[in-house]
Amino acid sequence: MNIEILGPRGSGKTILGKSISSELQLKYISLGEISRAEIRNDTQLGREMSYFIDNKILYPKGFLKELIRRNISDAIESGGFVLDGYPRQRSEAIELKTIMEELNTQLDIVIDLDTPPDIVKQRAEKRLICTSCDYQGVDLGTNTSHDCPNCKSVLSKREDDRPEEIERMYNLYVAERDAILDILRPITVYDVLKLDGTRSPGYLVSIAIFHLNNFINSRPNS
Ligand SMILES: [Zn+2]
Predict the structure, then answer these.
(1) What is the pTM of this model?
(2) Range 133-141, long-range pairs (CB < 8 A, 24+ positions)
């Protein structure tokens, strides 16, 4: 089963995506995580990514195609994926469509995590991340030191979790969302499942799993 999760940064895509992938035993592919791994490992691609990120430029057309294709291809071998953080613009949606066609597969469902800008900003202000292992947590406002529960590194705020940057990213996302959905619909078996991103992560996970199980059970040969 192949699942795409769309939503602005701060919509709760990561927690939803990770929960669905572990529940349904699908590979979780996060563009953020695979990008940060390239940068951390100082690969050629990672260095190019840093350039675009540092200069706040969207990736050029085709830039991520091979990286995404490789990850999707591996995931399909093992039963499917949950894709998070890509595509973020229409040219990437076209890229994804091409990749899926080349691999002779489809998306089963697209989850559209609809979240208003004020909620996205509130969440980003509280977000802490581990730069060693990609753990994401919430700043509870205490003054104690924040250590990563996975690897004990010190958690920090993401450089781009500033209100003006969040707003810029949100507006970019909103400007592309409908075009992305229009491109993905024809390669999606089930449909677009719109979820209310203001709801709690626990609720979102259970409602998404409910719909996904319905879908699985409605398929022939299931
Ligand atoms: Zn860590």
Answers:
(1) 0.85
(2) 134/32, 134/33, 134/36, 136/14, 136/15
